[in-house]
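Morning!

As promised:
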Amino acid sequence: MKRQLPSIEEFMPHMAYDSVIFGFNGKQLKILVLEYHNTGYFALPGGFVRRDENVDDAVKRSLRERTGLEDIYLEQFHTFGNTSRAEPDVMRQILEANDYEIEEWHWMLDRFVSIAYYALINYNEVEPQPDELSDSINWYALDELPLLMMDHRQIVERALQSLQENLEKKLVGINLLPSKFTMKELQEVYEAILGEDLRRTTFQRKMLGMDILVRHEKLFTGGAHKAPYLYSFKHNGISKA
Amino acid sequence: MKRQLPSIEEFMPHMAYDSVIFGFNGKQLKILVLEYHNTGYFALPGGFVRRDENVDDAVKRSLRERTGLEDIYLEQFHTFGNTSRAEPDVMRQILEANDYEIEEWHWMLDRFVSIAYYALINYNEVEPQPDELSDSINWYALDELPLLMMDHRQIVERALQSLQENLEKKLVGINLLPSKFTMKELQEVYEAILGEDLRRTTFQRKMLGMDILVRHEKLFTGGAHKAPYLYSFKHNGISKA
DNA sequence: CATTTATTGTCTCAATATGTTACAATAATA
DNA sequence: TATTATTGTAACATATTGAGACAATAAATG
């Protein structure tokens, strides 16, 4: 008994989204990558937009499903619209490997324009869940990505670039950390995103000078040295644009 | 004899683009706005994407048609994807006023996701041409815009914001000026975009310090004062990202 | 033709911001 | 109690930007 594919009645054709979901494990910046069943194809989490659904909501829906998290920092950064964004043979393989019934032609084999978002989440709060088509969803460091489908590699690169550009403008780094963190952890997030080392004293001065951090109790890690303070961000909740 | 609407065979449904075309008249930043025949509706220049066409190319095609210019500085800045982006009654009115034949329902009355771009052109080089649905296309200063259809006003605001953010990163201001210009003209472009006055000496020092300008002969305007130098940009042509 | 006017190009000094080094203040450990 | 590996902050040097001053014009004025 073959499964039924989502119907074109429900979704807008030619329209998709992809999410680059960033997390920080304390050392490296990582992203979530899906592996499709039995095919060896890797891809970014993505999906289609319902006909009665805002694009942003479609993306949030899928982020909830993949991560279980409710309020996620999300930023749309580019829409990829080249005609080359179609790989019907690959798509057919994936669908067949998932035991879907495919007619001669199906809308999911068509050309897609993809609206791309990046999300920032707290690595440790999450138990990622694969989607219907996938065996697994795993964290990959940016310099250890598997070969990704289609133009997903370029999508990741562009996401990182946008994240870097927004790092100063918005208080973006926050969203990759737990609510309380040390100055060192914050610095490590910045270094991972920018891909360069920062000077400790300058960084600390700048962050404190911005007047956006609240200082809390000290964190006694058990190390043979002065204990660092914990900080949190002043304004509550998600720092969405 | 009614005219025929573009066929859905040619275009992707639910998918559109809009362009915010900026020009600078020497004093103000302006944008091009269309007025639809006999309806009093104003809108941004936009269009649909052919099934076999890159989105970027669709936008360039329409820019050529509206402006006659070939190489235009163009930047995609956001995709607007809310379900509220549909006004079937208004759209029907516009089409009827243009003497198009409309069946019960038509794909152009549907919800659209719009991929938005901004363009920078040389105000004086252009003789704007209205599209099929429009009586006129005219320059409007940003603070004297007519009431625009749908969410086009928000699109303009977001375009301006992106332009402001890109002003420092890229050498964007260039594209609004003729190939040779004075330092004062360049400063006026920056001021119009940023919406604030800049300090003359600091601006000049910064621009010259960037090492991107070539100094040419002086410009004798006939004013009772020292003649300014003309400058052009070092690297040739369009400074696309 | 000398004088006046408005603007331009450049310099200087002041005010900020950032880079760099130094050092005292810890928590654990030996 | 001394040692170790940080952390928080201060101090100084350097770089960047803000602000004002001023000489060098093109034309207009008389």
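Chain B touches chain A through 22 residues (CB under 8 Å).

Hope this helps with the figure draft.
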